[in-house]
Amino acid sequence: MGNGMNKILPGLYIGNFKDARDAEQLSKNKVTHILSVHDSARPMLEGVKYLCIPAADSPSQNLTRHFKESIKFIHECRLQGEGCLVHCLAGVSRSVTLVVAYIMTVTDFGWEDALHTVRAGRSCANPNLGFQRQLQEFEELQVHQVTARHLHPQAGWLTGSLQPLAAVHLPQAPGELLPLCLGVKCCHLDEAGFHILRPKPGRSHCVARRPLAGVRADWVRAPGGQGEGAGV
């Protein structure tokens, strides 16, 4: 039996290597996808979709190179209404780093606020200093991409109501909870990386605890002029 995976968002869990082999826990939480990130990551159970990333818990380990595939894997699972477990050995550093990168991509949170969100569900979350630097660099890269990109004249902004997959609550102050809409329906990843657009001022697809520089949600215009999207 595992020590107990923790729910971070609807359909997204963090745990350790024992949790990843705990069939009872996996079934209870409807986990169908497992993202394993540790030195000897490999598929362990039948009937589960895996993404295995061999990586050491070392400050010099490059996890950024795996952000894109990890984010895509997690998001596709959540869009199907299924559960994804992200785990390393202890569920403290490597797995947390990938989940923080995911939250940064589908919300307007910087890395510190995204980590705060993870810690609200898993208090032991603590990426090593090297991974923290990579998350900071990832945030700076995303902000640069946002400011460098311009909307195509025919693109248009997303219209219509959002259809949130679920909601989480991020502690803002003692006794106070701030709802955060998490469940972007379209997280477009192109060959060059993340295609990120800034929504119009005043949109309420997500709420930050304080103004942040970058926007992680991607908004696209569907064929025929109908936008599609969701809350996170």
TrEMBL record:
- What Enzyme Commission number(s) does the record list for this chain? 3.1.3.16, 3.1.3.48
**Single GO molecular-function term?**
protein serine/threonine phosphatase activity
Check the record and name the PROSITE patterns matching this protein: TYR_PHOSPHATASE_2 (PS50056), TYR_PHOSPHATASE_DUAL (PS50054)
Q: What is this protein called?
A: JNK pathway associated phosphatase
Give residue ranges for domain Tyrosine specific protein phosphatases. Answer: 65-122
Q: Which SUPFAM superfamilies match?
A: (Phosphotyrosine protein) phosphatases II (SSF52799)
| Protein role | Dual specificity phosphatase; can dephosphorylate both phosphotyrosine and phosphoserine or phosphothreonine residues. Activates the JNK signaling pathway. Inhibits T-cell receptor signaling and T-cell mediated immune responses, acting, at least in part, by inducing degradation of E3 ubiquitin ligase UBR2. Dephosphorylates and thereby induces 'Lys-48'-linked ubiquitination of UBR2, leading to proteasomal degradation of UBR2. Dephosphorylates and thereby inactivates tyrosine kinase LCK. Inhibits UBR2-mediated 'Lys-63'-linked ubiquitination of LCK.
The record's Gene3D superfamilies line, in alphabetical order, gives: Protein tyrosine phosphatase superfamily
Tagged with keyword Acyltransferase = no
Quote any Pfam family the record assigns. Answer: DSPc
- Ranges for domain Tyrosine-protein phosphatase come to 4-144
Question: Tell me, how does this one assemble?
Answer: Monomer. Interacts with LCK; the interaction is direct. Interacts with UBR2; the interaction is direct.
Family assignment from sequence similarity: Belongs to the protein-tyrosine phosphatase family. Non-receptor class dual specificity subfamily.
Subcellular localization(s) per the UniProt record: Cytoplasm
Its keywords, alphabetically, are: Cytoplasm, Hydrolase, Protein phosphatase
Provide the primary localization.
cytoplasm
Q: Which residues form a coiled coil?
A: none
